[in-house]
Amino acid sequence: MAMNTVMCLLTDAEGTPLGSAMYIPHNAGHLQLTNLVNTFINNEVKLSYSFYVSDEELLVSVGTYMERNSVSVENVLKIVYRQQAVFRIRPVYRCSQTIRDVHEGEILCVSFSPDGKNLASGSGDTTVRLWDLNTETPMFTCKGHNEHVLAVAWSPDVKCLVSGDRDGKVCCWDPSKGELQGNALSGHKKWICGIAWEPAHLSYPSRRFVTCGKDGDARIWDFTLKRTLIVLSGHTRAVTCVKWGGDGTIYTGSQDSTIRMWEITHQGQGILKHILKDHAGWVNSLSLSTEYVLRTGAFDHTRQVTCSDEEMKKIALERYIKAKGKVDSPERLVSGSDDFTIILWEPSVSLQPKQKMVTTARLTGHQQLVNHVYFSPNGQWIASASFDKSVKLWDGVTGKFITAFRGHANCVYQISWSPDSRMLLSCSKDSTLKVWEIGTKKLKHDLPGHEDEVWAVDWSPDGEKVASGGLGKALKLWK
Amino acid sequence: MPQGDYIELHKKRHGRRLDYEERKRKKEARQVHKRSKQAQNSIGIKGKMIAKKNYAEKAQMKKTLKMHEESSSRRKADEDVQEGAVPAYLLDRENTTRAKVLSNTIKQKRKEKAGKWEVPLPKVRPVAEDEMFRVIRSGKRKTKQWKRMVTKATFVGPGFTRKPPKYERFIRPSGLRFTKAHVTHPELRCTFCLEIIGIKKNPNGPMYTSLGVMTRGTIIEVNVSELGLVTPAGKVVWGKYAQVTNNPENDGCINAVLLV
């Protein structure tokens, strides 16, 4: 009895083949292909993979696929394998707590700490509140701002919390006691749009962070010295977002439709490396392929207990290298803009000695401005939220469009990924949150219940909880 | 009162008295005492009027003094926190002034059951039958008068088919059939052209409701899916009631106001 075989070539997401083309029995399915990949890579622990043939997921056996799509048996079938996260996060489906009447103003930003143990929220009543996640009640109220708190950011070592407000003032907090450290730092002349910390593998414990504001400047501050170190000016209009990359480059996106890359020299000067000018409208949001790892530092889903500073720095560096992919492949940048497009940038290997980011792909398809773009934690996918009521999913390496998630009845404001990159959460003006599943490309759960627009959403890095808040002043925790 | 300028003429020709300035100064100094004596000794209505005038002056003086005092001490005024907090990504965008668009579905259902709504036009002029219908004569000798033609705007559903002409009593001319209405949201003050789903109630009678006649004050149901409203339970709202506010047969269009 002749076994029908199919000629296949397994390649990874970037195109490098794993071994040479081989014959695989036509009834080989997901399990057999996983075993094959694991043996070829010599994994000690069996990792799970998902397989894609011409960008569609291969869910049935290879032979059935060939029949259905009438692919000729004589051609070599290219199967792309992608590693899935080892752990699996439970989807969030119910609201475990609605906390009303605590925040007297609208909730403008929420952020979980990198270890997933604390939650901070900034609001229009000028306070930052820290929440106890075990009892789901408020823990500390941090008063120090005189205007709405627009941005809040945890340091990767969880020891510092920084918030920025509408006056341009920056407040540093001690999260264990909820106290203001020092005074409110002034420097920005108008409101603060975003805050980013220096990655843990570059400096542990965390000291420096960068803030960007409407006045067009980005300022680098030192947490312990409580003052501005460097001012990065150059943008002509408001800087809407700032990210600190793993190689030390600072990316700032602005309303003047450019993105600038800055570097800090050893002498402590901030110099402009490049200006990326391909957008035609305001740059609303930036995301790096290693962003999730940079935010969580040395913590991951296993919730390790802290060890010494050097060890944490080493762990953070290992995680960063793993997230980047190969050692010399650099991090990619994606930017979403008011001109309805998203651009995927990659550093070019060119004759110039300096690494300049070049447009790899222009991701079009949205019918309204793109408000938020976010790389998945494993860097394989890009999700974009737009005012055209849809969330679109794109391939993280090539930028190819995968699918659009429709279901929201009004503008989608922010997105958040689950730590295993299997689920995507979006919050919208129509007061609902929706959980989308990447594997099936469908809506997993609808989370209604907010009374009004939802402005901020965050999934905790340990995958246990989701926090959301918005115009109705209640903070909701979902499990 | 001098009727002429002989006083000025004399002043020009001969000058003033030698002690004019001194007398003037002293007289003015005495005014203060005179005024206070007047205020203390006047009785009746006159006294009250004087007291009122003095009080008003005193209050005004106090205010100006306080104002002058404030500016001498420089103090940074505590500004109140502004209303309307928005996240950073929405700050530079002009948002339409928001009014609460979410309505409570339970309240709505209760209202529907009772048949009572809070409507913008509670009372409408009743339309008489001879104004609503025109008699159509039929038959070989045009003596039969049982057919009627509707003279007001109507709505027929999408699957409407006429009855056989021999048997149809009410004729609804296609020129007076409308499918869309211009619906205004009362708080947002913007108008949308929305499709009509059906006629809910015509205040002139149940017969007109069943015929689908739209006059001023009729409650119609419109398709609001393009407004993007969501109920608290998370479901998308696609139909809402609106009340017609004009006379469509005169204007050629239906203007309605949304009932929130």
UniProtKB/TrEMBL annotation, chain A:
Keyword Nucleus: yes
Domain NLE: 6-65
GO BP annotations listed: ribosomal large subunit assembly
Localization in the cell: Nucleus, Nucleolus
GO cellular component: nucleolus
Keywords of this entry: Nucleus, Repeat, WD repeat
Database matches in InterPro entries: NLE (IPR012972), WD40/YVTN_repeat-like_dom_sf (IPR015943), WD40_G-protein_beta-like (IPR001632), WD40_PAC1 (IPR020472), WD40_repeat_CS (IPR019775), WD40_repeat_dom_sf (IPR036322), WD40_rpt (IPR001680)
Pfam families attached to this UniProt entry: NLE (PF08154), WD40 (PF00400)
CDD domains for this protein: WD40
Record's protein name: NLE domain-containing protein
Organism: Brassica oleracea var. oleracea
From TrEMBL, chain B:
Residue ranges with Basic and acidic residues bias: 54-79
Function comment: Involved in the biogenesis of the 60S ribosomal subunit. May play a part in the quality control of pre-60S particles.
InterPro entries membership: NSA2_fam (IPR039411), Ribosomal_Se8/biogenesis_NSA2 (IPR022309)
Family stated for the protein in its record: Belongs to the eukaryotic ribosomal protein eS8 family. Ribosome biogenesis protein NSA2 subfamily.
Subunit and interaction comment: Component of the pre-66S ribosomal particle.
Organism: Brassica oleracea var. oleracea
Key words of the record: Nucleus, Ribonucleoprotein, Ribosome biogenesis, rRNA processing
UniProt lineage: Eukaryota, Viridiplantae, Streptophyta, Embryophyta, Tracheophyta
Bias (Basic residues) ranges: 24-37
Region called Disordered, residue ranges: 1-82
Main location per the UniProt record: nucleus
Biological processes annotated in GO: ribosomal large subunit biogenesis; rRNA processing
Location in the cell: Nucleus, Nucleolus
Signal peptide (residue range): none
Pfam families the record matches: Ribosomal_S8e
Record GO cellular component, one term: nucleolus
Record protein name field: Ribosome biogenesis protein NSA2 homolog
